[in-house]
Specification:
11 strands, mainly beta
Length: 123
């Protein structure tokens, strides 16, 4: 079992920044890949970013490329999502998730999910 807890969400003005964190417990954090997804009201869950077990490989959705950065600290069992130049369209509940190996942008390939953290970007 893996438990994931997201934090760092909040209300920010357009153009601002936030850093989300996802703390993991349970199985060995450094052995699996991590992803961030988001879901806005009335929309399907969408991929945001993913990172491999060592941090050497990352994957981003086109909509966030150049603005968001995913990283991880295996010593702290934590993955981060640095979000810059935020837009109102980034408003959503953000979820972190794990899968055993390989980066992926497909939600149903992830095995465990956190409860989510709300990000609201005002115009």
């Amino acid at each position: 079992q893996v438990q994931l807890v997201e934090s760092g969400g909040g209300l920010v003005q357009a153009g601002g920044s936030l850093r989300l964190s996802c703390a993991a417990s349970g199985r060995t954090f450094s052995s699996f890949s991590m992803g961030w997804f988001r879901q806005a009201p009335g929309k399907e869950r969408e991929f945001v970013a993913a990172i491999g077990w060592s941090g050497g490989r990352t994957l981003y959705a086109d909509s966030v490329k150049g603005r968001f950065t995913i990283s991880r600290d295996n010593a702290k069992n934590t993955v981060y999502l640095q979000m810059n130049s935020l837009k109102p369209d980034d408003t959503a509940v953000y979820y972190c998730a794990t899968r055993w190996q390989g980066v992926s942008g497909t939600a149903n390939e992830y095995h465990y999910w956190g409860q989510g953290t709300q990000v609201t970007v005002s115009s």
